[in-house]
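SEVERITY: medium
COMPONENT: batch folding queue
REPORTER: lab tech (J.R.)

DESCRIPTION
The queue accepted two submissions in a row. Attaching both inputs and their returned structure tokens so the on-call engineer can compare them side by side.

ATTACHMENT 1
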Amino acid sequence: MSIQWFPGHMHKARKEMAKVLPEIDVILEVLDARIPWSSENPMLAEIAKQKPVLRVLTKSDLADPATTEEWLEFLASDEQRDALAISTQEPNKYKEIPARLKALEPATQSVRLKSRVAMVVGIPNVGKSTLINKLTGKVVAKTGNEPAITKRQQLIVLNDSWNLRDTPGVLWPKVENPASGFRLAATGAVRDTAMDSAEVASHLLDHLCVTYGDALRARYGSDLPIQDSVETLETIGRKRGCLGAGALVDFDRAGRLLLQEFRDGLLGGITLETPTMRLNEIRETEERLAKATAKKEARKERKAQERAANRARKNAAKR
């Protein structure tokens, strides 16, 4: 799935993040607990280099608790990496963040500021602004249930020891793993107008029918078919009255309904990927890209050989 949504302010934000990195002591990377891998911005690895990272999994109340525990163990990989799951339903969890930052802080002080600085980064609509407001105990960052609310960086005082540098939600120009693209769309990381709701809902059902079939039937009826995602979506649409001309199911309406109920947590705690899936999909993506690169190089070589052969024929004709 190719996401065609990379506004100009995101490109600007990436450049500004790279510019201020020398002042940053710790990266506070905010991830969606339902898609911890797909919500991890690969551009950050390029620009953050060896900075310590605290990964905070937001919306954990919407995720599968058992899978969240798997992710926390996977993400806290070494002494420069830590991970914590939070949700607005458990406000005390936010109080752990300053201590987690302190445990990761490097030995040197920030270049320009007396207080240490944690850069808060994450994709759109992942909950960065809500996290900052909870940490500071006041509304200092604008929030909203849609992507691209924060448009520019701002420096926020957390306490006597720490400042937070809030950054806009940043996507990357090209999602190489198609499954990640669909997951980003399903969780609302991109505007709904940038995707086909029925297609995204069908892809979501590919996972739900296999892993969370009981949750689907608890929500939409015990007779819900879960062998085929298109049939499942059609049945949900018919049950919920998403009908168009000729009493045919309007798949777009049905898709939007399913996506909204998933995002609202009405299907229960659901996680769309596991650490094992991450490793498998990375391997598959690398193999696919390697094959594509090999084919491209082979085409270039064939064209070069054709040009050389044409030149040889022209030269022979002249002689």
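ATTACHMENT 2
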Amino acid sequence: MNTRYIIQRLLLALVVVLGVSFVVFLIIHLVPGDPARVILGVQANEGNVAALQERLGLNRPFLEQYGSWLWGVLNGDFGRSLITRQEVAPQLARRLPATLQLAGAALVIGMLIAFPAGIISALRPGSKTDVFTSVLSQVGVAVPDFWMGIMLILLFSLTLGWLPSRGYTPLSENFMDWLAHIILPAATLGVISGSIQTRFIRSAMLEVMNENYIRTARAKGLSERLVITRHALRNAMITIVTIIGLQITALLSAVVVVEVVFGWPGLGRLALNSVLDRDYPLLQGAVLVIAVLLTLVNLLVDLVYFFLDPRIEYA
């Protein structure tokens, strides 16, 4: 592994995170609405609003506010919520595991759907199985995640009564209760993610199955299972890993809607509530954490490329 390349990627990731933090900070401050008036209510007089703005530092120049916030973040201090006056960092720490668990479970479900469906479709192109899989994957891509979540709640919670429709239990407290609560939201995201992955896995496998080394492997008398796993799937993994990396970033973005539908206490729901409350520090902290996660995922994908194909050279 090229150490210089890793250092360059880490520095680039840092620049990306800083850029995202600045853009988010700017956009939030351009959005109409005043946190001080949200806290005091619409009937508050201008004197009280101005006094609260000064106490919260909202009347300082934009760059001064951003620099003060960024310096605090670099020292582990994300500030305090404008609404509750609680420290932001502990709230982010409490919400992060729930979001990571939901996104991770959804990714696993998506991969369990996509790999067998995509591979089987690629091995039998044009067959009834291929057509059926393609239709289902197209439907899965087209269905909105909030609609999928509502349908699952109506079926498995309200009609059958098998699973809870809302809530969250920490994994460390009760595994079975945690599992019961995570199945529906994870399935909502996982089915949609799996539909997208299926299409790309099928395409990647179809491409490598027509290569000369596949015909050579079959001519040598290797079993079809070895041809698929050792030669076809391994060479298709470069494309598949790229798609999985993109799906992880998509899942971390899509959790906002699903967390609201299922009452899941994650970063997405926290960020949405912060937008409604004009709670700048809380929203900035949530977005920054998500940006760091996305940047790390992209870096990890780049590193996985090397282990899949050591012939790859990093400029």
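NOTES FROM REPORTER
Residues 224-262 form the longest helix (39 residues).
No errors were logged for either attachment.
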